[in-house]
Amino acid sequence: MITARAAASFEPVSRSVATARSFVRDTLQGWGFADIVDDAVVLTSELVTNAVVHAGTSADILCLRTEDGARIEVADRYPEREIPLQGSHINMGNPDREGGRGLQLCAAMASRWGVEYTSTHKQVWFQLDLPDRPVGTRTAGPSLPADLLPLADGRVRVAVVQIDRTGAIGAWNEDAEELFGYAPDQVIGKPLTDLAAWPHTPGTSTGVAEALQLSRWEGSYGIRGVNGRVTPVYASHLRVRDTAGDPSTVCLLVRDHERAVLQTPLRVPAGDSSGSGEGQATDPFEVFIGSPAPDDLDGLLQRTVERARDMLDGDSAFLLLATDDETELEVRASTGLPSARQRFARVPVEAGPGRYGSARMPAVHDDLTAVPGAVPLLSGTGMRSVVTVPLKVEGRLTGSLGVAAEAPGRYSNEEALRLQFAADRIALAVESARLGELERLRRGSLSFLVEASDLLAGTLDRDQTLALMAQMTIPTLATWCAVYTIADQASDPYLSYVLHEDEDLIDGLKALLAKIPPPEPIPTPGARVWTAPAEAAHRAALRTSMRSLGLGEPATVSSGIGTTLATASAVGGETVVLPLVARNRVIGMLTLGKPTDEHFRQEILELAEDLSRRAALALDNARLYSERVAISQSLQRSLLPPELPQIDGVEVEVIYRAAGEGNEVGGDFYDLFPIRDGAYGFAIGDVCGTGPEAAAVTGLARHALRLLAREGYAGPAVLDRLNSAIIDEGARSRFLTLLYGELWPQDDGSALLKVVCAGHPLPLRLRQDGTVEPAAEPQALLGVMEDLELYEQTVTLDPGDVLLCVTDGVTERREGTRMLGDDGLIEVLTTCTGLTAGAVAARVMRAVERFASDAPSDDMAILAMRVPGLHKD
What we know:
It comes from Streptomyces capitiformicae. The chain is an alpha+beta fold.
């Protein structure tokens, strides 16, 4: 009886195969048929591939739910293809065949199957029956002797944690408190992500947030306990909803070595209920992966090698994935081998001449000692016999799966056929997971590079750029990083920055790298392997070990490298160097390293290469900016007046602020200098504009004032000649406002001043009684008209009086539509009665800064002079 149906059509394009797999998986899981989902997906994938890839027609899929299981029909529009007779002996054929396995798989896996023809269609159907289990039992296993049961440490504690729809912890049982040390009130309401430890590599594995959103999930991760240590756990997540429809996730967690308590048991294969197919044996892949399959690539690959080893009763197994150009294979999973040493190592696809030298063909080696180097991955591991088979998808090599044993002669072509059949079953799932991982990695890489570019563009400081460059690579790309810089073409690389993810190892790493020659500054793009750090680390470790044993130091061990065994271990892995090239010049090298015997993934190296290009340009920009600022500041400092002279009987204070980053001198200027005995000249002025152009006129004005005043010219004559000099500059001339005066301290404690105010804000005089009045009259500014009629005015400062001179950057300070103005400055000055000249200048500047929140946009200068009067003994 048909109880439900679902149908869909797929276009004749390669991506339809993946879409069809998802359709069947989602349909059967929705029906609650998780036990037969994997078989249905594999069979559908083969049949749809035959239709849309090999036959080039569209495919129609119909899923029918029955009381006993599910029937799936796949129809295409290519009825002429040859179909083997049902019930006849099925020849699996050459394991190297690229296609044509769809009907063979139906014969091997389906409870029933068949083919129906019309004039325009061919329809292949298969029936998968649900496993026949006792009532109330989902899965069950045989009785086992006590010594074969999983090992647990005393009482098995199962932490039960409930996570609400926002990802926050809602329930925390006693076992969770015992395992991780947190009391319920310490964690309830907090996100589980605050406690979970996950990989740092972008796009790798499923994140905890994603895992909590899945309907069911199993896997391993770490929980950071109250003591800061990470406890590896095995978790089983189940998504549920309450009576109000609010979803939450129930998490069961045990210590990772007790995973057998929670891990879903392997499926018990269903018997052959049809009786068709003489001598049909149980498909070894029925128990190959288990259900549910891991939803991340690393988990899927690791379970694959474990099942392959068990299936062929081997001592070790390994799985390698092919690079995009199919020239190399990258080690991604192994069991029974030193996986930490082998992970991400690369071997060529074509290892040598002949059939047994290519990973594209199945191969059986009875004794590896007779063919040294035939399987480079197994060199030095003690493995003698090995069988390897390729993983292929649509004719393209995607990987290699191998099983090895310590004894010779363990495997034959029969085992190769079984392993090839298993590899064909898993190839699609592996490729799909690999593409998913690459997509996540690319998205993570793009986000990483965007963030890195923003950070690098946000600073022009060289040291900060070096620090950012290293901090962005650790721990995302590497375990440790060193940046070498090159000052110029004639200079040797200099070790500028060293960083390790363990701060305790930075000093030892820096000492190690300082004792070995730096890498060659080769401009060739891409990463190249640098063996010197690993070799130096090995020698240092040997030296330390021999010293601890009291055996002395071998002559070949360098005595200059003082490092600990921990440092040597941290640097003992693969090290790569990427050139930092900017404006066609090598300005440094970015060095990335891994701990002992670890290798870099190709995707990580490509990401590091992209980062190095951005970092090189940022570092060179910081260098150019630093040089420009240093030159500018050096020139500007030459325009500042020397130290102000001490004037008997007069207090003088100057505050100067140049607008613009890196500017020490702008369009505003001041000066105070001796003219002759008892006479001093002072000036405060404002050149139109800011920056270097205005600073050039500033230098002209300041030096001309000193020269003319010391030649004996009076104030009006000094300013008239300065006006002529400015106009003579032609197109480079700028108008100038200037307050110039001469000061004579008097014997009675007062001071006589003669001032000329040429277009400048008027000087203000503060008397002892708190009144404020202008101390001069306005006259024409300089640099506009050739003939000026200027005159000087005489002012006497009585004891206690203050003369305040400012530039318009002070009076024109703005906050929106408000301006400080002359009235505001006068109001501030009236509060300064009795203050010293320094205190008056400081109070005025503080009032100006507080008037507006934005940074000043104009130069500011404040010159305050006060006559304290005579002191009586």
